[in-house]
Amino acid sequence: MLPPNQGTTIGPEDQSKQITITVWLNLHNKAALDAQVAQIYDKNSPSYLRFITMEQYKAQFAPTAKDVAAVTQFLAAHNMKVTSVEQNNHFVMAQGSVGDAQQAFNVQINRMMIDGKEHRVNGSAPAVAGKTGALVAAVQG
Question: How far apart are CA 100 and CA 86, in angstroms?
Answer without folding.
Answer: 23
